[in-house]
Amino acid sequence: MDTIGHYINGQAIGAGAGERSAPTFTPATGEQIGTVLLASAARVDEAVRAAAAALPAWAATPALSRARIMFRFKELLDRNLDRLAVLITREHGKTVEDAKGELIRGLEVVEFACGIPHLLKGEFSDQVGRGIDVFSQRHPVGVCAGITPFNFPAMVPMWMFPVAIACGNTFVLKPSEKDPSTALVLAELLAEAGLPKGVFNVVNGDKEAVDALLTHPKVAAVSFVGSTAVGEYVYRTACAHGKRAQALCGAKNHLVVMPDADLDKTVDALMGAGYGSAGERCMAVSVAVAVGGIGDALMEKLEPRVRALKVGPGTDPDSEMGPLITREHLAKVSGYVDLGVTEGAKLVVDGRGLKLQGHENGYYIGGCLFDDVTPDMRIYKEEIFGPVLSVVRVPAFDDALKLVNEHEYGNGTAIFTRDGDTARAFDYGVQAGMVGINVPIPVPVAFHSFGGWKRSIFGDRNVYGMEGVGFYTRVKTTTARWPNGQRGGAEFVMPVMS
Ligand code: NAD
């Protein structure tokens, strides 16, 4: 069994005196596979101090040199992709191909960060007054902390630290205690790429470690991705302690199906977006909105596909969907399906109680599909974060738009239609941060930025892309005048003060 520790100042760190720990499991079989150390406030302090000590030299390192380390890190990620994907599957449960997908999306942010010399170029205005010029520079903010969720143990940290580090900051990452190993491998690869000690540190842990980061006087900025309840707390606490903060949170993403949509393509999209990664994605589609009588035809095509979903261990290349993250989460998701039945929704496909031969203790649930879901139901209002798709039927486009806009979350959304005018009206009027037009999971590419609206985000900066550069830098604007130049050429008389 592995003991999963921390990575501080270029060194792997094992258990300290009195340090708490928690078991880690492999969701495919439910077996315990390791023990993760849970950092105390003193351990977090050690990591933050290491990051603070490394800051002056790293901030003064030319952006080109920082970018070259990112190039080497990208190469190492490419070379270690298979090994990392298997590690993610072991602790998270998602299929190996899906794990590779998350690694590649993270790697794309590293590629973006390789362009940092260009991205950090400032602004310049000459002659704003007579003989006066103004220029702005982007400086690092200092020690940055990242607090990340279980569902993307590689991609979400890589939404943050490549940009932060390339901008000249140092970083302390607190990954999810449910799948903590990937972050430690990323730390080793960064060191192999030539990153100086102390620039990137990992503390594993739970609330105690998070609280220590949020209140530490040497932490300048906090990035969080996770659930809304925790995100709101993290944002408020970080702000109350004078830090910059961004918290990307929960979601309930709607996919609107217009009567003119290509139904086969729409059903393919719903299957991937609703059940891929067992619905444990913040951009998963959990509500399909059937507009104007398309509901029956949609259900007719959707139901057999959900029944036929191949659920199995993530290491089996035939699996389309792996297990859920923990036994507790399995109970929570099954509980939501029970609740939907009680609330009066029509359970068309019931995935509860799935047992796989040889994996009887794994955290599996089959795909679940509800029809006739209404907005007053808790299964509609709350984020389930499992393979449960709710179909809501509405008469017209305006009703669909209103429905999406009245939901408390506004992370991503999508519309499937062949009509450009409808698509444009939806895109313009919808209250969500990321919109797909015939694209089910519109996670923006690395040179744009990721972020939702409403209670899917706290703070005013998205992650990665230029928003990320903005979050991880502070602007210094200089106004310069040089009144006494030496235009007369060389002077041969001994200079004296005038
Ligand atoms: P979570 O909120 O339980 O945990 C996120 C992080 O916060 C973890 O590192 C965890 O250790 C820490 N944490 C947990 N409870 C805490 C507490 N009481 N005080 C301080 N820190 C605490 O989230 P999760 O279950 O790991 O991830 C799933 C959630 O993340 C879903 O809600 C999903 O929508 C969301 N998510 C959002 C995005 C996005 O970009 N909007 C992306 C991925 C996941």
UniProtKB/TrEMBL annotation:
The keyword Oxidoreductase applies. It holds the Pfam family Aldedh. The keyword NAD applies. Residues 20-477 form the Aldehyde dehydrogenase domain. Keywords: NAD, Oxidoreductase. GO terms for molecular function: methylmalonate-semialdehyde dehydrogenase (acylating, NAD) activity. CDD domains: ALDH_F6_MMSDH. Its EC number is 1.2.1.27. It is an enzyme of class 1 (oxidoreductase). PROSITE patterns: ALDEHYDE_DEHYDR_CYS (PS00070). PANTHER family: MALONATE-SEMIALDEHYDE DEHYDROGENASE. This is methylmalonate-semialdehyde dehydrogenase (CoA acylating). The lineage of its organism: Bacteria, Pseudomonadati, Pseudomonadota, Alphaproteobacteria, Hyphomicrobiales.
